Amino acid sequence: MSDASRKVIISCAITGATHVPSMSEHLPITPAQIRDQAIEAAEAGAAIIHLHARDPNDGRPTPSPEIFKAFVPAIAEATDAVINITTGGSTRMTLEERLAYPRLAKPEMCSLNMGSMNFSIHPVAAKIESWRYGWEKDYVEGMEDMIFRNTFKDIRNILLELGDNGTRFEFECYDVGHLYNLAHFVEQGLVKPPFFIQSVFGILGGLGTDPENMVVMRSTADRLFGRENYQFSVLGAGRHQMPLVTMSAILGGNVRVGLEDSVYLSKGVKAETNAQQVRKIRRILEELSFEIATPADARKMLGLKGADKVTL
């Protein structure tokens, strides 16, 4: 049974690398837009801010450290939220490109996809009537023939290199097998509790959005790690965002929202800012008598090194 007296961490993924600007005019793409939306999301109650970068000229995903530097330090200066930098980047980036900024920043947290997989939203292309930029159509349609790569060696190297700087991880698990991949690294001694497991539902190539799948992921993680050793969180893609993350809290977990995961606030209504989604889930959680974790709470719950040990 869920403990309503515990604190729930809200993560907010600001822009990602999957959605394209033609899907929403509100998707932040410039450093200023990413900065402002991240700060507003933190002020609304997000304890963790998950960040990707985009080329400000046309919104395409970029691993450029210079572009990250144009907004990450400003976010850190304006808020005490935990800064979580992607190591996933996009399916078009090499591992070296994906690690370029995390190596420099040595952040408190990085996301880490727990396996290679088919990862696609290519069916969405048929629903877009007008493309804002020339690169977008090929990018979305091309996902049908792309694989996101994170081999066991890739994961091990990320854990060793970034972990040596005290960075901890948002372990993104898109399927049950990813939990077993995580268990492998626990057995190797490369991952120690408390783990932060982000279960992802609704991406083509991973687990679907059936509520039963969440129970499978939760119970499997309990069996592999012991509930006392990890924090569970849920990311629901698209229209499934709010129902699934609410279910996560009820099952004793945490929640992630943001325009990376869904460009909508409700059916047929696009979110104009990330903060709108944060405010909505915060209201739902507080009406269910859950307390929202502050950044200080999140750092304690996840065993983070602290913002003062980061070189953003």
UniProtKB/TrEMBL annotation:
Decide whether keyword Transferase is in the record: yes
* UniProt keyword list: Metal-binding, Transferase, Zinc
Question: Is Transferase a UniProt keyword of this protein?
Answer: yes
Gene3D superfamilies xref list? Aldolase class I
Q: Which InterPro entries match?
A: Aldolase_TIM, BKACE
Segments spanning the bilayer are none
- Which coenzymes or cofactors are required? Zn(2+)
Q: What does the record give under GO molecular function?
A: 3-keto-5-aminohexanoate cleavage activity; metal ion binding
Highest rank taxon of the organism:
Bacteria
Q: What name does the UniProt record give this protein?
A: 3-keto-5-aminohexanoate cleavage protein
